[in-house]
Amino acid sequence: MRIPETPKDVKQLDLMKLLDAYADGKASWFSDGSAIGPDMQQACRTLHTNLTDLVNQVFAFVLDRVNAREMDMFTMHDRRHGMKVAHLMWHIMAPERRKFLSPPEIGLLVLSAYLHDAGMALTRAEREGRLATDSDLWLNLENAEETKQAFLKLQSRLKDPDITGGPRKRIEQELQQAEEALLTTDTRQRHATPERYRELLELLAAFHSADQVRVPDIERAMSFDGDSFKVKLVDVCMSHNESAEALVESDRENFQLRRFPRVYPVGQANADLQLVAAALRLADILDFDRERTPPLLFHYLLPGGLSVGESISKLEWSKHLAISNWEINEADIVFRGRCTSHIVHHAIVQFCKQIEFEISSTHASFTALEEQGTWPFILPKTVKTQIHEEGYHYVPYSFELDDGRIYRLLMGGAIYDDPLVAVRETHSKRR
Predict the structure, then answer these.
(1) What does the DSSP 8-state code read for residue 4?
(2) Which of 164, 186, 190, 361 has its CA 20 to 30 A from that of 119?
(3) pLDDT band at 266, cuts 50/70/90?
(4) Average pLDDT, whole number, for the chain?
(5) DSSP, residue by residue, 90-104
(6) Hey, is 217 helix, strand or coil?
(7) What's the number of CA atoms in the CB half-sphere (13 Å) around residue 103?
């Protein structure tokens, strides 16, 4: 199965078309096919309108800011990514599950597709605050002090009035590249935290208070039939940056309940929160084609320790993009493309292994509890690559220690004739 082309308008998403059909009374999410009453039809129409307005008037612009400044050389996290994730959610879901998606499930799926990365957008003040010398950004970096000193050295050199022309321009470029790389690393670590989502939603609520005509009401948009699902939406978004074990965790405030219950009431409908959280993490990692390169490509090519003297412009993702198309078969998922770099080729292979692991671990979460659920996706567990090499030959060599021989070397007579000597030496070093 090939994934169809991503629509350009949120109303053209299949998820939204189904919600529109509910609003018109042309479809029903009830398992017995019973008709939807006029009140529920109106609730569906209200949700459809609110989702459309929130995406078009708020999230599209928030997400576009992510790649407008920080992350501009990184993978796309703009409105196209949000649209693609929502599009993939539908197409990777089993057809028999799609037709029974409830309105709150649709709302959670669509909004999580757009909200999960919105925390990556930074205001100018946030940007300056994160790069300040007293920011905790530096505490979270490897070789932090070395990186910080190199960063400060570049800033200091720019203050030298004797440095002009070409040399000054190169320093400015290096400093800008360093800032973007630092903020990229920092923002990826912080964007899916409850604090970050709370900051963002509070900011959007303030914008609505200041301009109620152009900025939708966050509270209304994140509810169905007058019942808010905002808290669970944020939790779903947080989980996409956690391991798949989060899907089967207990609720953090009530351990007798599940964090993502299969039946969660929202108004006069129910939502399968485990399905929603699983769909987000799977669709997010599967957004891997010409429209977007994987995070691993950036981190794999980035010099260790973030040496600000390195030219990070070579990492511009559009020049390294190799995936042309992909499809879902009954036995495997296949990514195809052409590549001119063995390094990028290896990164693609490694990233496909991550996709494979994500699918397997997410699949396991649906059978981990006594309340076993049917796997609601059409995703096989095997992920393959078919990359045409241009100018090189890729051989997936790897090196591993022979544990048995290492043990025999250390415990046998190759180093010490008398085993008691090794014991005596260990004892003497402890003293």
Answers:
(1) P
(2) 361
(3) very high
(4) 82
(5) HHTB-HHHHTT--HH
(6) coil
(7) 34
